[in-house]
């Protein structure tokens, strides 16, 4: 069986001095979007990974430092956000419309 890892939770035990973490949440009309498909794309728009947002709309990826695009797809709409991720915690919010 294949599936996305459970989203949210603590970063306890993660060494943020060596790891690049991209995490955030998906929102629509002032509320979190549970179950949105959240994709991580590299600087050439190549698909890298996908997770399903938690009931609180949260997502998390472990990636390399660099330019990334986070795209969210949900029944209420879609949205995306670009960011330059550095080693450590990189937080973002994706609004879907």
Please characterize this protein's 3D structure:
0% of the residues lie in helices and 56% in strands. The chain is mainly β and 97 residues long. The protein has one domain: Carboxypeptidase-like, regulatory domain (Immunoglobulin-like, Sandwich). Strands 1, 2, 5 and 8 form a four-stranded mixed sheet that branches. It has a four-stranded antiparallel sheet with strand order 4-3-6-7, with no helix packed on it. It is globular, with a radius of gyration of 13 Å. The N and C termini lie far apart (32 Å).
Pick out its properties.
single chain, Immunoglobulin-like, 4-stranded mixed β-sheet, 4-stranded antiparallel β-sheet, 0% helix
Per CATH, which architecture? Answer: Sandwich
Structural class: mainly beta
- Listing every helix as H and every strand as E from the N terminus to the C terminus, the arrangement reads EEEEEEEE
Summed over residues and divided by their number, the pLDDT gives a mean of 92
CATH superfamily, by name, is Carboxypeptidase-like, regulatory domain
> CATH first level: which class?
Mainly Beta
Distance between the termini: 32 Å
Number of helices: 0
Number of beta-strand segments: 8
Main pleated-sheet profile: 4 strands, mixed
* Percentage of β-strand residues: over 45%
**Overall 3D geometry?**
globular
């Amino acid at each position: 069986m294949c599936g996305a890892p459970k989203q949210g939770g603590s970063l306890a035990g993660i060494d943020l001095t060596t790891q690049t973490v991209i995490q955030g949440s998906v929102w629509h009309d002032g509320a979190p979007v549970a179950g949105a498909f959240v994709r991580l794309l590299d600087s050439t728009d190549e698909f890298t990974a996908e997770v399903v947002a938690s009931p609180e709309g949260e997502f998390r990826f472990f990636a390399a430092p660099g330019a990334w695009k986070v795209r969210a797809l949900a029944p209420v709409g879609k949205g995306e956000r670009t960011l330059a991720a550095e080693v450590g915690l990189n937080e973002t919010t994706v609004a879907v419309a």
